[in-house]
Amino acid sequence: MHNEPLAFRMRPRNINEVVGQRHIIGKETALYKMILNGHVPSMLLYGEPGIGKTSLAHAIAGSSNLPFFSLNATHAGKKDVEQIVAEARIAGKVLLFLDEIHRFNKLQQDTLLPHVENGAIVLIGATTENPFHDVNPAIRSRCGEILQLKRLEPEDLMLLIDNALSDEERGLGKENIVITEKQIEKIALASNGDARKALTLLESIYFASDEQNGQTIIEDHTIEHLSKRIGVYGDKGGSHFYNLLSALQKSVRGSDTNAALYYLAHLLENGDLIAVCRRLLVMAYEDIGLANPAVGAHVYAATESAKVLGLPEARIPLANAVVEMCLSSKSNSAYSALDAAIKAIHDGKTGDIPMHLRDGHYAGAKTLGHVGYQYPHDYPVGTFGGWVNQQYLPDSLANEEFYKPVIAGEEKRMAGIYNQLKKFKKGQ
Q1: Res 178: pLDDT
Q2: Does the keyword DNA-binding apply (predicted)?
Q3: pTM for the full model?
Q4: Is residue 35 part of a domain?
């Protein structure tokens, strides 16, 4: 029996053995053709754990004639980098795979980057973090390709599992395993697009199964037991976590209740309750806004309740908040209006505060001309309250309109008032 994990043993040996990622390394892609023609460019591979960054790097190395070296930036030192540089001087050109490249420090960069720039070292960097946020620009600029890998599709994972079951040299092909196509599909679906998890799960299921008459019989209950939580992934401070938050907000904004609940479930399984509560509260005012002002108070109550309750009970008020926001009327008019006002200020559209609006609650205010303010409460208008036609914006911005009402929900009524007041200003 092999000592290495099945996922390690089944890494592709060349680019023709890569499963999935056809948008990057499919036979019609430029990268595939370049490698077959003997040219390997420096590149960054970006994606979640387990979806094939390291495997792709090893496959590229297996399809090239370059000496191959592998380092992890979390514990590689300057000396390790200097050894690679020395090898490059001897061999003329080497291929270096640098995992966790976003953790590369400046000292390592200063040693390595000139040799990447002159072509002596072909660099393949891998990161789980967004390279445009977390990878040093000096490294990005020397990598011609930034390739985002995707989670594998279930059919890709099923092919991967089939390969492992049939491979007698590296996989489980020599073992007499009884497993159905439906069970292979269950393993693939439980792995949530993660190749490493799929093969690790398969290996665990094999070792947890009983042998009968020289055959290892795979049972459904073994798959179900070992599959629990396998699809959950997310570094609380990492790019994937923020992608989940983004997907949650965009699903609520798009009124897709099922998608929003799915992303909420994923976030809560990751356990960062405070970050989820903060995002939900922002959404209540950013995306629901004036169309349903009561939602802000409802979501605040739900998030405060969630913090008191803690997980797993916190999911209950948060589920209520998410469903309510999904199905609520929506408007972003208020904060969009504020952003427009901020932009006007940054663009230099400023002016003096009208004299009648300036502070008049002190001796000498009249001497400075701070007079003429009309108190709106003294001028009742129907059931609205008080209103008087006087100028509030500076003279240079007197005709500016930042607020553009959305005719939705409760804001429809507000929009009617807003438009009527505009008519009053024009004397209509």
Answers
A1: 93
A2: no
A3: 0.61
A4: yes
